[in-house]
Amino acid sequence: MKIPFLCLKATNQIYESQISEVVLQILTSGWYILGERLNQFEFEFAQYCGTKHCIGVANGLDALTILLKAAEFPANSEILVPANSYIATILSVTNANFTPVPIEPLLDNYLIDYQLIEKAITPKTKAILVTHLYGKCCEMNAINDLARKHNLKVFEDAAQAHGATYMGRRTGNLSDGAGFSFYPSKNLGAMGDSGAITTNDDAFAERIRALRNYGSSEKYVFDHKGYNSRMDEIQAAILSVKLPNLDADNLYRRQLAERYLTEIKNPKIILPPSDSIENDAWHLFVIRVKDRDKFRLFMSEKGVGTDVHYPIAPHKQLAYKEWDKLNLPITEKIHQEVVSLPLNNALIAEEISYIIQYVNQF
Ligand SMILES: *Cc1c(COP(=O)(O)O)cnc(C)c1O
Predict the structure, then answer these.
(1) How far is the CA of 59 from the centre of ligand 1 (A)?
(2) Ligand 1: residues whose CB is within 6 Å?
């Protein structure tokens, strides 16, 4: 059997005729940017998340950057971030000209260790930007309580957690504002780049809306030094086609994840946490293996594609060479051992059985 880690052609196949139709409608409408399709998707996604506002932008990194920019913190403010995240979380802070301060994760669930947050707070700290990594929500009650106590804002990087819930509320609605990515491989993926910001704060939303469009609140009037970061009509329409299926897609991912969790039995493999299976969006199914290269080679010889999210920690990247001396052993251990198994809506039961068989054989 040959099972690629992810085949986007296969995952999008069920939408083919609906997407062709809306793309043609947009082509012939002659209106391509900031139109009805975007308004419609923003309305639908805000409803889905349970927030007052959704503002479509060009990608997930921009969503986070603009979110932070719109907060108007003083220059050089410190933003607490997870040391264990995709680099975009941290790039958004430096792109917004603030200082990211990395916090170690919990080894149990790979998410920011909220018990380490308080120690990292200084007079310059203005916000905590958490990542719901792999589709699992951070401990938001504890984090929001801490933020309230220290007068900090809380933001979510929800790029991997569309539809994940925490205490009955969806991501995007668990903080002062959230950034989403609709990069093609995400749980809700476009056919190109796009992203969105959600918030319940009217004035904040207004500022974000201006910032994504050159800082303009009215044509040729510029109140802010903004960006050009707009979700185009085609991506918005495609996302409107796919959004009604998101919950069913996430449920299917969960069912596959449950099979991995119950049927993988190999002492060499550390499974992901299963304490909140029904709440997680299961963006990725990430296991840990000591001999990762050997495992990946073994699986690829059996025809199974795997991936690593992520191989090099942000503080070990050349881009953050000023962090090279930081001691973040849990983050480093995770980056050395994680492997992602295939998990998407194009996989069938026999393929999952096949993958499990060889994971157990390793
Ligand atoms: C994908 C991703 C982003 C960035 O999204 P883009 O749309 O690729 O810019 C940010 N944070 C996390 C955790 C992601 O997985």
Answers:
(1) 8
(2) 59-61, 85-86, 88-89, 131, 157, 159-160, 181, 183, 193, 195
Q: What does the alpha-carbon distance between residue 198 and residue 180 come to, in Å, rounded to a whole number?
A: 8
Along the 362 residues of the chain, how does pLDDT read in single tens digits? 999 999 999 999 999 999 999 999 999 999 999 999 999 999 999 999 999 999 999 999 999 999 999 999 999 999 999 999 999 999 999 999 999 999 999 999 999 999 999 999 999 999 999 999 999 999 999 999 999 999 999 999 999 999 999 999 999 999 999 999 999 999 999 999 999 999 999 999 999 999 999 999 889 999 999 999 999 999 999 999 999 999 999 999 999 999 999 999 999 999 999 999 999 999 999 999 999 999 999 999 999 999 999 999 999 999 999 999 999 999 999 999 999 999 999 999 999 999 999 999 99
| Residue matched to tokens 């293996």 | 289
**Pocket mutation for ligand 1, best pick of 93, 136, 180, 183 (most atoms within 8 Å of C-beta):** 183
Q: Which of 255, 295, 281, 269 is nearest to 131 (CA)?
A: 281
